[in-house]
Structures are given as structure tokens and as C-alpha cells.
Structure to design on (360 residues):
């Protein structure tokens, strides 16, 4: 919205700053961060009054989780409100990629909100039907994938870019649409599965998002893209503003989600943030890199898949409990120990993901 101030610039005044993505990304970050600090406590108080008993705790979960009974959920609303305000205020609103990613985020947030609402009202950890969640998620992802293929340069349409190789493309044809849908829905559900301990999901999400802010800025800039040997996707640099707002809102939320959490993100936040990461990866043509940068989320999701399939086949369990962070809880690791170690892993994977920009 503020980008229109550039029309008042003669090229040498303060209004000229609004032309720069980096300046507007900084503005989006601080706007979302301050929004989170200001409205965090009022939102938590409102959620506590409305939900009363808070998020229901699983009976078969780790025993220490019962001490969290009464903690309100749907705290993802704070992140979403902050990043939406920051994005609409500082991003170029004539950029299709910004709208695609923002609408995917809000669409998955709506699914998560319905799921959280069902859990709170029924006071049961089983919320919205899994089939309904998946069907709506796939529909949102399909629209996003189609929009992305329309906006992508013609030379890259329906192509899958390979990391570590210059100019390496695999043309998937019409299969690219379901592939992109899988990336978006998979990312949304993987982050959702990771959100099981105080602060566990939000920091790796911010680390992955910051990594993709760099990627988006690089692939959207002709000079950087040519220097690094990556495929140019004009317009994606503007997603750095969206990501900056996400990180600002995420930090504002983490202030209240740090152990012991005053509020949980809920599916409202985890599905939305995962969907956002998937949509950004599709927009920037770095879908495979997302599996590296978000490797922590991949492992969390795989641990559930492996556990379910192995149990159905043998009646036995591979892990003491899935997702895998609960396995380590059962083994006696402290919650803070698990969270911080997973943060470290997320940071290492992000650095490896960034290295794919240069190692070609």
C-alpha cells in the first residue's frame, strides 16, 4: 500500500526509499512485530475467556502435557493478523505472487480455525474430519498451483528446477499441478505435525521462511540470478516483504509461546504457516530445496507415516510415540532440550539449503 508513495518521489527524497524491497521488508517486519506485542496479550485474554478449558490434551500423550491443560489455542490468529497487516501495508499489491501466497496462507488458516474450533467446542483432540481438511486443502493448493503456472515465465512453466545443477530442468507437463499441490499440502501438514511443544514449530518456520526470503529476493533479481546461475522468476523478490512480516509476527507470537506457553499456535497457525512455505517454494521454483530447508518438518511427517504403516503391518511401533519429538519425550529428554536441539537442526538445514544457491 505504501509503495504508492514512490509516485511522489523525484528520485532523491525519502519517498524513493519505498522503491526498495529491502526497506519495505524492514518496515513489514517491525510493523508485524509491534502489532504482535501490542495485541498479543489482549488476544490471549480473549481466547481464554471464550475457550475456558483451552485446548484439549491427548490422554495417550506424555504425562507432563497434562500440566498445560487450560492453555488457550488459536494463537496463530496473532501471527496471521500481524503478517496480513504488514504485507498489505508494505508490499506491492499489484504483485500476483504476493496475493497467491497470502491467500493460500489465509485459506489454510481457515481450515485450521475450523479444526481448532471443533476441538475446543467438543473438548476432544479429534477436530474437523481429516477427509474434509484434505479436500479443502487440495482445492486451495490446486488454485495456487494453477495461478503459479500462469505467472511463471513461459520458459519455466510446468518445469521442476533441480538444486546443485545449473540450468537443470525437468518438464513435468500437466503433472506439475498435482506436484505443486503435494508440495503445498505436504508442507502445511508437516508443520502441523511439528507443532507439539512450546516454541517447537514457530522458530523452525521462521528460520525456513528467512531462508526463502533470501531465495525469493535472489531469483527475483536478474543480476543475482545470473550471477548465481539460478532461474530468474521476475516478481518473486516481493515475497521477501511477506516473509519479513511473517517473521515479525512469528517473533511477536513466540514472546507469548515461549515455555511455559501462554497460548498455543493451534492448527490455525501451523497449517497456515506450512501452506505459506509450500506456496513460496512453488512460486520461486525451489520446491526440492524446501525439502532440505524444511527437513525437520519432513522428518516429523515421515515419523508419523512410518509409525502408522508399520503398526498396521506388524502391530508393533517403531517409535515410542509419533511424531518423533514425542518419542524423545518418552525417552526422557526435557521439553526445552528437544526444542532447542530441533532449532539447531533447523538452522543447519537452512544453511545447507542456502548453499544450493551457490554450489552449482
Amino acid at each position: 500500500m505504501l509503495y504508492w508513495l514512490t509516485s511522489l518521489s523525484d528520485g532523491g527524497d525519502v519517498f524513493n526509499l519505498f522503491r526498495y524491497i529491502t526497506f519495505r521488508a524492514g518496515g513489514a517486519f517491525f510493523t508485524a512485530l509491534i502489532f504482535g506485542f501490542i495485541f498479543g496479550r489482549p488476544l490471549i485474554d480473549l481466547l481464554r475467556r471464550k475457550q475456558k478449558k483451552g485446548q484439549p490434551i491427548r490422554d495417550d500423550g506424555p504425562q507432563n502435557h497434562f500440566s498445560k491443560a487450560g492453555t488457550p489455542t488459536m494463537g496463530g490468529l496473532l501471527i496471521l493478523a500481524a503478517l496480513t497487516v504488514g504485507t498489505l501495508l508494505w508490499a506491492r499489491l499489484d504483485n500476483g505472487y504476493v496475493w497467491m501466497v497470502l491467500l493460500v496462507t489465509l485459506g489454510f488458516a481457515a481450515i485450521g480455525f475450523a479444526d481448532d474450533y471443533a476441538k475446543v467446542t467438543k473438548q476432544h483432540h479429534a477436530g474437523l474430519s481429516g477427509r474434509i481438511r484434505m479436500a479443502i486443502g487440495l482445492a486451495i493448493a490446486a488454485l495456487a498451483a494453477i495461478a503459479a503456472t500462469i505467472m511463471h515465465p513461459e520458459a519455466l512453466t510446468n518445469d521442476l528446477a533441480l538444486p546443485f545443477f545449473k540450468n537443470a530442468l525437468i518438464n513435468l507437463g500437466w503433472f506439475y499441478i498435482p506436484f505443486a499441490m503435494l508440495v503445498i499440502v505436504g508442507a502445511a501438514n508437516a508443520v502441523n505435525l511439528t507443532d507439539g511443544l512450546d516454541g517447537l514449530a514457530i522458530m523452525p518456520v521462521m528460520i525456513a521462511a528467512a531462508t526463502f526470503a533470501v531465495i525469493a529476493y535472489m531469483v527475483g533479481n536478474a543480476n543475482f540470478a545470473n550471477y548465481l546461475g539460478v532461474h530468474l522468476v521476475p516478481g518473486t523478490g516481493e515475497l521477501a516483504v511477506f516473509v519479513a512480516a511473517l517473521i515479525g509476527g512469528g517473533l511477536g507470537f513466540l514472546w507469548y509461546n515461549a515455555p511455559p506457553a501462554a497460548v498455543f499456535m493451534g492448527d490455525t497457525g501451523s497449517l497456515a504457516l506450512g501452506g505459506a512455505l509450500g506456496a513460496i517454494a512453488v512460486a520461486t521454483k525451489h520446491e526440492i530445496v524446501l525439502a532440505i530447508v524444511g527437513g525437520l518438518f519432513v522428518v516429523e511427517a515421515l515419523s508419523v507415516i512410518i509409525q502408522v504403516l508399520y503398526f498396521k503391518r506388524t502391530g508393533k511401533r517403531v517409535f515410542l510415540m509419533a511424531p518423533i519429538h514425542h518419542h524423545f519425550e518418552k525417552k526422557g529428554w526435557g521439553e526445552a532440550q528437544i526444542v532447542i536441539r530441533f532449532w539447531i537442526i533447523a538452522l543447519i538445514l537452512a544453511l545447507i539449503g542456502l548453499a544450493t544457491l551457490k554450489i552449482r
